[in-house]
Specification:
single chain; 248 residues; alpha/beta; Rossmann fold; 4-stranded parallel sheet; 11 helices; 4 strands; 48% helix; 10% strand; globular
Length: 248
């Protein structure tokens, strides 16, 4: 399993030769293809969680038969679908990112600074705002510790990557999702207060080989409880296809 930081996140440099406003969600599959070539991996499965959902979908749409299966969990949907988010901060953030990103520059910068310097406080405030089903998951000591480490790493370079990705997802994606040829499974929790279930329903309409698995008692972070199920689905491919996953 290979985890990749998008440009500007963690240890990944901002995209070379491309000013931030010129980035596109459709640039990401090119990065993934080059990484796979470098690692000598011919075919592979892709998974995206939350804000990673659109980027995973772009890989499925643009990399043809190199992608054998795609899983999207609690994934952000096309811009119109995000207006149904229960959190007013999410709704306001997406609206501002689409047309006036300067409005959220300072709040996001302060949040990134808080997350980088006082990650425990940042994580605990986040958990307090979530529904009971999410709080139960994230208050497990191992989950909280992992989330704290992730927050520090995410904001290593500040808030710029977060703002850029939000802008990309809040504007038309410019990705032909109807060209997706691999099976796609979408998981979502009905109690998700960050990404509305409508986002997954909208994605399913655009993806020609999609199935939706809606969990009635789950929130945004139930991926930690179903990760084994997700991995089992991603790897449930015929032997001939599985053999192609081996490095050349």
């Amino acid at each position: 399993m290979i985890h990749v930081d998008r440009p500007g996140w963690g240890l990944s440099d901002p995209m070379p030769g491309r000013p931030a406003p010129d980035r596109r969600i459709g640039d990401w599959p090119t990065d993934i293809a080059r990484l796979a070539d470098h690692l000598r991996v011919d075919r592979f499965a892709v998974a995206g969680v939350s804000g990673g959902g659109p980027f995973a979908a772009a890989c499925a749409a643009q990399l043809g038969d190199r992608v054998i299966r795609t899983a999207i969990i609690s994934g952000v949907g096309p811009p119109p679908s995000m207006s149904g988010a229960k959190s007013w901060e999410v709704r306001a953030g997406f609206k501002a990112a689409a047309c006036a990103p300067w409005l959220i520059w300072l709040p996001m910068a302060l949040s990134a600074l808080l997350g980088a310097r006082w990650p425990g406080f940042f994580v605990d405030r986040l958990i307090d705002q979530l529904p009971a089903c999410d709080r139960k998951i994230l208050r497990r000591p191992e989950m909280r510790a992992m989330l704290i480490a992730d927050v520090v790493e995410a904001f290593r370079q500040g808030h710029h990557a977060f703002l850029q990705d939000l802008q990309l997802e809040a504007r038309p994606w410019g990705v032909a999702l109807d060209r997706t040829s691999c099976p796609v499974a979408l998981w979502h929790g009905s109690l998700d207060t960050i990404v509305p279930p409508q986002a997954t329903e909208a994605m399913a309409v655009l993806l020609p080989h999609a199935t939706v698995k809606m969990s009635p008692d789950a929130g945004h972070f139930f991926v930690f409880d179903i990760w084994r199920e997700v991995l089992d689905w991603l790897l449930a491919v015929p032997v001939s296809s599985a053999a192609a996953l081996r490095r050349r």
